[in-house]
Amino acid sequence: MALRVHLGDLVDGSEAPWLTRLRLRNIMADYQSGSVPFLVTKGNHDDNDKFAEKRAGHRGSFLPEVNQTLIFKPNAEQTGVAVSQEGLMVQDFPNLRIIVLNTADVPLIDGHKAFDVKKTLAVSFAQLRNFALALKGVGKRDVLLLSHAPALKENGQPALKFNGRAVHELLRAFNFHASGVLHTGEAPAFGGRLRFDFRQSSGRVVGYLAGHYHLEADYIVNGIHYSLQNTSALMGRHHGLTTKFNRRYDRRFGLPSEYAGYVVSVDTQQRLLSLYGYGAASRVRRFQY
Asked: Rounded to an integer, what distance in angstroms lies between the CA atom of residue 117 and that of residue 133?
């Protein structure tokens, strides 16, 4: 195993801030104690906004520096892992670059938290700029993109409130080894004018792996393969938020279906992406790219 990955939502975000912080610290300590390198990103529940929604003044919600310290700093302390201020992560292998986007990237605006992060999937303009630079520096490597939520839905509509379409268009431009300028609107912290140049890169996008929706799905939009994984914790068959996908497994504590995870293999010679599921997951999915 070359790498351990967590696609975010390490916690439910509904507990007292001190307890959520403790859980995040303990989870990251587990990754740090192992011998296998890791990439752990942030989900839309990790800012504790589910707890804060029920409190006056949204008290108990985390400011960005909390997860910068608890989640992204341990990633950055590893050799060979580059982490931006916004939580974009890059790790290289001989024929493959893995890029992890933070799709719960909601900066402060005028020093204040302007959005409920639990309800706002987004990539800031600053992270988008670093994403374009990460794609530019790929060289001959192929790219596997990971994030908590996908940039686009199956119908081609944005899955993020801010910059989902922009992420997708950069991936398209990368596959065409193109250059140009991308306009992302005028919204503070998310809008801007981004110049990109992928003419020196010869790699391809292997796929875009994400979670968030508590199901599995594979779809292609403009040549980009989106692959959704069932990254759902066990909630119980009759829980109101349990998806049809998870009800099929009748997940129970103490049984393999308590868990849901995947072993991901990328064969750059055969141009093959393979996903081997365990627990509440499909056993084998394979895709040419």
From this structure: 26
Could you give the CA distance from residue 267 to residue 253 in angstroms, rounded to a whole number?
35
The contacts found for 242-248 with CB under 8 angstroms, 24 or more apart, are 242/214, 243/213, 243/214, 243/215, 244/215, 245/214, 245/215, 245/216, 245/280, 246/214, 246/215, 246/280
Residue 137 token pair: 């520096």
Domain edges within the chain: 4-288
Q: Which fold has domain 4-288?
A: Transcription Regulator spoIIAA (3.30.750)
C-alpha 9/C-alpha 229 separation (Å) is 13
- Nearest CA to 213 out of 182, 244, 258, 251 is that of 244
139 in Cβ contact with 33 (< 8 Å): no
Render pLDDT for 14-36 as a digit per residue (tens, 0 to 9): 999 999 999 999 999 999 999 99
Q: pTM of the prediction? A: 0.96
Q: If DSSP codes are grouped into helix, strand and coil, which group holds residue 287?
A: strand
